[in-house]
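Adenine phosphoribosyltransferase
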Amino acid sequence: MSIYGDYIKSVIRTVPDWPQPGVNFRDITPLLQNSAAFRKLIDSFVHRYQEMRLDTIAAIDARGFIIGAPLAYELNCSFVPVRKKGKLPFKTLSETYKLEYGESAVELHADAFERGARILVVDDLVATGGTMLAAAKLIRRSGGEVVETATIIDLPELGGSQKIRDDGYDLFAVCSFTEDE
């Protein structure tokens, strides 16, 4: 957790029973609307990664873009969007992953990275880990080296962060929530 983790967590809104009964949705909108909180959020990532040699920030569609773009700017890295299938106009590489009911896929441009580029993968939240793992596998397939994965929120009880670690990737989360918080 970051030095601002408790503060960031206090600004995130929990919406019970959305999008379906029994789900506690973690809404980052208040975090984005609060300029001091948003600055502390980006600073949390900058402080973590400013000494690490990174070439690229790869951000996952769509809320990962909110973190990834300012972080790439602050760290003087390139920015690569990892998009939902069918959103990129050039030759792409794709990685499919399982959802609770079906499958989805993420893509990136085939020429997104130079071989051996050191890449940080960012998203807003890790729940089951499927999207983050698919993005990391896609980056590895493209010749990039995933240095770490990072997120604002970890929901460890859903098992995603453990799956990510079990697959050999480090995960940094600014804060985490249990189901009863």
